[in-house]
Amino acid sequence: MPYFKVNENVDTEITLADELNVDEILGMVNSASSVVQYSVKDNSLILEGVVSGNLLYLDENREIKYLQTQLPYSVNIKQGFDGDICALHLSTVPTACKCKIKRGNTLIVDYELCITGTAYTKTQVQLIDNIKYDKPL
Questions:
Q1: For 80-106, what is each residue's pLDDT tens digit?
Q2: Rounded CA gap, 28 and 95, in Å?
Q3: Contacts of 23 (CB under 8 A, 6+ apart)
Q4: pTM (two decimals)
């Protein structure tokens, strides 16, 4: 399977420092994703990476503030990866993000990653099965 495209939802919790006094979450901007490592297990591609961005919020004085965040993720893509991957070209883009306050300074962050890629695997094939000669050359 050389080309694939999937959308994966990732949920995580983060705890902010107490001095931030978050009153309301406005959203995340300037988000980007990077893959740190990958592996193949049971015909699935496992990606580990980080989504980074600026979390916009209102403090107790209703002033807009931002905080740079890095959210780790691990996704399991079950697309029938078989064989050894010898080259992998990936693009991971956060396409949607929802943040809400769970309690105090603990936030629930739910975001979607659009993952596209091309995986090249080593495969052994037999090109010639049998040769039959009718006349000598």
A1: 776 677 788 899 999 888 888 888 888
A2: 11
A3: 57, 58, 59, 60, 62
A4: 0.75
